[in-house]
Description:
Blueprint: H1 3-8, E1 11-13, H2 15-21, E2 24-26, E3 29-35, E4 41-48, E5 51-58, E6 63-64, H3 76-96, E7 97-99, H4 105-118, E8 133-137, E9 140-149, E10 160-167, H5 170-176, E11 182-184, E12 193-197, H6 204-218
Amino acid sequence: MHIEEKIFQKTKIDYDKLLKYGFIKKGKIYTYTRKMENKDFEVVINIKDNKVEGHIIDLNFKEEYDNFRNENFRGNYVAKIREEFINILEGIKDSCTINRFFIYEQTNRIVRLIKEKYGDEPQFEWEDTPDCAVFKHPKKWYGIIMHINKVKLDPSLNQDVEVINVKLDPEEIKKLLKKEGFYKAYHMNKTYWITIVLDDTLRDEEIMDLIIKSYNLVR
Length: 219
């Protein structure tokens, strides 16, 4: 994962704030240019469709300098450039983005729907798994969101995904497991829980209907 992805993965760009910050819009691309402390280098940040892409240009040679991305280069010179690049990105993140609980759009939409329906927000209870959160009523879980690799659900797949586990009637679980987007519960009792992928395979409304059933069961 690139530096930009790590810094901006749980954020949403506020494009109006980009312009106030000093970005220039050309077509669909927003560009920010700034010289580094070492005047021989210039940082260029391009943002399009919520994707951030950064470059460091060596002004003497008019070419891109990318040694700072290689973690095997640990000299003070490279480390200082890497640190300044990260600080510039962090400044943009702090001034021009909106924080999101999770990485993927459907996950954040589902979180908002739960908040609207029950007033509950995700509770992050484990320091060693910061991407895992639960929804409770009042103390019993009715939903658990996790960031996992899909290979844990299906050995033929290998991609990161966010999922939600919900509690349902065992007979309904058997029927749902025959449909796309549903898997045997990950890290939960497979008789009473089911895992739903949050990658837009299923409609938000369909997922919310199952979350409501889970809420009513634990209530």
